[in-house]
Amino acid sequence: MYANKEIEFKTFITKEKYNELIEEFNLANNIFAQTNHYFDTVNSDLMNQGIVLRIRQKGNSYKLTKKTHSEIGSDETHILLNKEKAMEMLAKGFNAQIIDLPYEVKKRAELTTYRVSSPYKDGTIFFDRSEYYGNVDYEIEYEVDEVEQGLKDFNEFLKNHNIEYKESIRKSKRAFDNCK
Predict the structure, then answer these.
(1) H or E element that contains 165
(2) CATH number for the domain including 104?
(3) Which residues, 6 or more positions from 162, have their beta carbon under 8 angstroms from its beta carbon?
(4) Any residues with CB less than 8 A from the CB of 174 and at least 6 apart, and which?
(5) Which residues contact residue 31 at a Cβ distance below 8 angstroms, ignoring those fewer than 6 apart?
(6) Which of 135, 138, 140 has its CA nearest to residue 177?
(7) Reduced to 3 states, what is the DSSP secondary structure of residue 168?
(8) Structural domain of residue 168, as residue ranges?
């Protein structure tokens, strides 16, 4: 198990702006898919507490992540999983005590993101196309280590690329709100 702090700034963008940025940064050949499988209790205990619990699948790599809000950014705890264990957890659910949550959880939603990234200033910028339950949306995420400079650089990027800030909703919430 290992932990990290995530500081990110996000905004929704249009499909046209997404395509424009992919072309400008010459990233069309670097798009990769990652699927987030979201877990919760039958009573949505985790969502109600603002906790995200997911298994992220990238190719044949699987990682269980617990994401909680903190004063600055989010605190993340991760456990790397082998494919067999991940498939079992996806199919049957699991006791989340393995990641310090006192709940039995089951897979409740999923969302697939087609992502590209590029270094930008003191962080990494991501251009995402996310698909979930018949919906498609586009966003920019900028991950940094320092809040003030990161926000300044993010706002500068938006201004330089003529992007109007549009508050982004957590991917987990989008998936949960739209699953059948």
Answers:
(1) none
(2) 2.40.320.10
(3) none
(4) 111, 130, 132, 135, 137
(5) 22, 114, 115, 116
(6) 135
(7) coil
(8) 2-178
| Straight-line distance from the first to the last Cα atom of the chain, in angstroms, rounded to the nearest whole number | 32
Quick check: 70 and 52 in contact, CB under 8 A? no
Question: Looking at the chain, how many residues does it have?
Answer: 180
pLDDT tens, residue order, the chain (180 aa): 878 888 999 999 999 999 999 999 999 999 999 999 999 999 999 999 999 999 999 999 999 999 998 888 899 999 999 999 999 999 999 999 999 999 999 999 999 999 999 999 999 999 999 999 999 999 999 999 999 999 999 999 999 999 999 999 999 999 999 987
User: Given its phi and psi angles, is residue 45 left (phi above 0), alpha (psi -120 to 50 degrees) or beta?
Assistant: alpha
What distance in Å separates the CA atoms of residue 119 and residue 99, rounded to the nearest whole number?
Answer: 31
> Alpha carbon of 93 to those of 53, 99, 114, 132: distances in Å?
12, 13, 25, 20
Q: Which residues have C-beta within 8 Å of that of residue 135, sequence separation ≥ 6?
A: 174, 178
Taking the CA atoms of 98, 103, 109 and 111 in sequence, report the sign of the dihedral they define.
negative
**How many independent structural domains does the chain possess?**
1
CB 73 within 8 A of CB 147: yes
pLDDT the model gives residue 25? 93
Instruction: Write the DSSP assignment of 58-119 as a string of letters.
Output: ETTEEEEEEEEE-SSSEEEEEEEE-HHHHHHHHHH-EEGGGGT---EEEEEEEEEEEEEEEE
